[in-house]
Design a protein that fits this description.
With 259 residues, the chain is mostly helical. It has 13 helices and no strands.
Length: 259
């Protein structure tokens, strides 16, 4: 276990060193969700059917959306390692199995946390406020990071399935529906019945609804279905299920590449 932790930390420092060498990529990852937030706040004229200030509704939804988007950098990094022979070099080293993936995931989680702080600062600047307790705010951040962790392992697995950086764009098409078929921007009541039901069961929608409730933003619970009324439970269950499925699959796939 000690060697596994050491190897994973070495791989984490490797990924962090890439930040210094590729600052533009890091900056784009931070700026893109901010641009979406400002666009939907000031340009798209959203908020139809939403009680209260739209920023109170939109900003927590954008927090959740940020945890889903941005996987392209992770997927590209994994596929580049596969195609540039880096993984082959790691095969010859006495390294713990999966340390490369753990290092990638830790670095990504650190970047996601920084992105959340940036988004919170922008949200405060445009008028968003939280009204819950400090413990509730910490709980909201915990749910957001759980969603990110789950989507990260999904992205790592899909990257290894894609195999090449040029195929990542095709895989990314699967991520966009998850992001936009959610209650991040509007309430399901504004959608056709079948689509609203699908949106309410979206993992992103569960997290968005749960963090709105924890932040004390209105409307806290979006919808009257079982999924909407038990959003905090689903916000925990969805990431646990996704990690339980895709983390072992990713490690198994990586192990197969090493043999």
């Amino acid at each position: 276990m000690g060697w596994a932790v050491t190897d994973s930390w070495t791989m984490t420092r490797r990924e962090l060193a890439h930040w210094a060498r590729q600052p533009v990529q890091v900056l784009v990852g931070l700026v893109f969700p901010v641009m979406l937030l400002l666009m939907f706040t000031y340009l798209m004229g959203g908020g139809k059917g939403i009680a209260g200030e739209y920023a109170e509704f939109l900003v927590p939804g954008m927090f959740a959306l940020t945890m889903v988007f941005g996987l392209d950098a992770t997927m590209v990094a994994v596929t580049q390692d596969l195609n540039k022979g880096v993984i082959d070099r790691f095969r010859s080293m006495p390294m713990a199995n999966g340390a490369v993936l753990v290092g990638r995931s830790v670095a990504d989680m650190l970047q996601s946390f920084v992105s959340l702080l940036v988004m919170m600062g922008v949200g405060l600047a445009i008028g968003w406020r939280w009204h819950g307790s400090f413990g509730a705010v910490v709980g909201a951040f915990g749910l957001l990071m759980m969603l990110r962790f789950a989507m990260l392992w999904l992205g790592i697995y899909l990257a290894m399935i894609a195999g090449r950086p040029e195929l990542v764009a095709a895989v990314q098409v699967l991520v966009w529906p998850v992001g936009f078929l959610s209650n991040a921007f509007t309430v399901p009541e504004n959608m056709p019945g079948w689509l609203g039901a699908l949106v309410e069961w979206n993992p992103l929608s569960a997290t968005a609804t749960a963090v709105r409730d924890l932040f004390g933003n209105e409307p806290g619970v979006v919808g009257t279905s079982w999924a909407a009324e038990h959003a905090e439970l689903l916000a925990v269950l969805w990431p646990v299920v996704l990690v339980g499925v895709f983390l072992p699959l990713a490690v198994r796939r990586f192990t197969a590449l090493r043999t």
